């Protein structure tokens, strides 16, 4: 029996003034509900091996951790108030910094409101397994010792996906668009990019999320997670992430569907010389090209614009996007 999946788009990693970022907590939930399918506010919660960069910035970080803890009950209540399965799903979570082991944000499968600041990564992974949580590593292309991702310490049962795009930049490979140049830990380290990991035999699903520090979830060009799920519920979204039925978008909400020998994205299948790849891509705007990669190399390109039937585009409904605001 064929299962019907829908693509849902949301932000799994976002910040505001509850912590050490900017922007209204309440308004962030309103913004997310207005244009996303799901939202996880992930306050900066703790940093077990924090480095004293300089007095002022370290004080700012530590003060932010105290703010997040003090206002966590308010975060939990807002998540409960805004949660509306089938229309908009909220997810509780928070962020653990790690100088040596990299940054993770933990996502909870319910709205109970746990706030367990477990310092040891292996113990945190054990807690996540017991609670049914997900741990998502982010900005992986930082170098080790500077909050970069260490795949040798990954537990795929709780970390099935990697956040490869955010306001930090894109970690698909070392020459991908959106370079790491907005933070002092940048730029990208080749051996910490997605394609390098895959070539070493690691297996990940991928997502994007904004990691925005201005209280604006789903900011355009900062990244969204696309999850294939049977319905818009927290359980269905978590199932999509656990089975890697997900992908990353950096801008528009591109609808992507592909199967290899009738197995969908995220699944594993035995080696065979005969492979049939079925791909369907739809977008809000004209698609420049679609690329198929194998072992990190492009093996096929398709240019949909070359196959236009010549019909007048104004005879069909069109979607317009307006950008406005201060600055």
How would you sum up this structure, described in words?
The strands form 4 sheets. Strands 1, 2, 3, 4, 5, 6, 10 and 11 form an 8-stranded mixed beta sheet that branches. A 3-stranded mixed beta sheet has the order 8-7-9, with no helix packed on it. A 3-stranded antiparallel beta sheet has the order 13-12-14, with no helix packed on it. The N and C termini lie far apart (52 Å). α1 packs across α2. With 327 residues, it is an alpha/beta fold. The mean pLDDT is 92. It is globular. The protein has 2 domains: 248 residues, Metal-dependent hydrolases (TIM Barrel), CATH 3.20.20.140; 53 residues, no CATH class.
Q: In brief, what are we looking at here?
A:
This protein is of the alpha/beta class. The protein has helices at residues 25-35, 55-82, 121-131, 194-199, 234-242; strands at residues 6-14, 38-41, 44-46, 89-96, 104-107, 134-137, 161-166, 169-170, 205-208, 224-229, 246-249, 255-260, 263-264, 277-282, 290-294, 297-302. Helix 1 (25-35) packs across helix 2 (55-82).
Topology, pairings included?
Elements: E1 6-14, H1 25-35, E2 38-41, E3 44-46, H2 55-82, E4 89-96, E5 104-107, H3 121-131, E6 134-137, E7 161-166, E8 169-170, H4 194-199, E9 205-208, E10 224-229, H5 234-242, E11 246-249, E12 255-260, E13 263-264, E14 277-282, E15 290-294, E16 297-302
Parallel strand pairs: 1-2, 2-4, 3-4, 7-9
Antiparallel strand pairs: 1-10, 4-5, 5-6, 7-8, 10-11, 12-13, 12-14, 15-16
Helix pairs in contact: 1-2
Which properties best describe this structure?
single chain; 327 residues; alpha/beta; TIM Barrel; 2 domains; eight-stranded mixed sheet; 16 strands
């Amino acid at each position: 029996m064929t299962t019907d999946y829908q693509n849902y788009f949301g932000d799994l990693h976002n910040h505001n003034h509850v912590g050490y970022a900017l922007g209204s907590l309440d308004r962030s939930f309103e913004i997310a509900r207005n244009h996303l399918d799901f939202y996880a506010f992930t306050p900066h919660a703790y940093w077990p091996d924090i480095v004293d960069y300089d007095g002022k910035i370290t004080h700012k970080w530590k003060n932010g951790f105290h703010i997040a803890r003090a206002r966590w009950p308010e975060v939990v209540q807002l998540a409960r108030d805004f949660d509306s399965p089938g229309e908009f799903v909220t997810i509780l979570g928070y962020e653990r910094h790690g100088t040596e082991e990299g940054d993770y944000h933990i996502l909870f499968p319910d709205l109970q409101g746990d706030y367990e600041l477990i310092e040891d990564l292996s113990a945190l992974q054990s807690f996540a397994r017991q609670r049914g949580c997900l741990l998502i590593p982010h900005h992986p292309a930082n170098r080790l010792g500077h909050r970069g991702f260490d795949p040798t310490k990954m537990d795929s049962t709780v970390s099935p996906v990697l956040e490869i795009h955010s306001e930090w930049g894109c970690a698909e490979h070392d020459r991908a668009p959106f370079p790491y140049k907005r933070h002092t830990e940048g730029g990208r380290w080749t051996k910490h990019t997605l394609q390098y990991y895959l070539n070493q035999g690691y297996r990940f699903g991928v997502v994007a999320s904004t990691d925005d520090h201005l209280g604006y979830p789903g900011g355009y060009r900062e990244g969204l997670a696309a999850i294939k799920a049977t319905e818009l519920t927290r359980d269905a979204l978590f199932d999509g992430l656990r089975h890697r039925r997900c992908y990353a978008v950096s801008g528009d909400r591109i609808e992507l569907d592909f199967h290899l020998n009738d197995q969908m994205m995220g699944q594993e299948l035995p080696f065979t010389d005969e492979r049939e790849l079925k791909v369907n891509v739809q977008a809000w705007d004209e698609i420049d090209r679609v690329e198929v990669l194998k072992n990190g190399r492009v093996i096929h390109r398709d240019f949909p614009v070359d196959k236009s039937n010549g019909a007048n585009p104004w005879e069909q409904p069109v979607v317009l996007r307006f950008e406005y605001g201060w600055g």
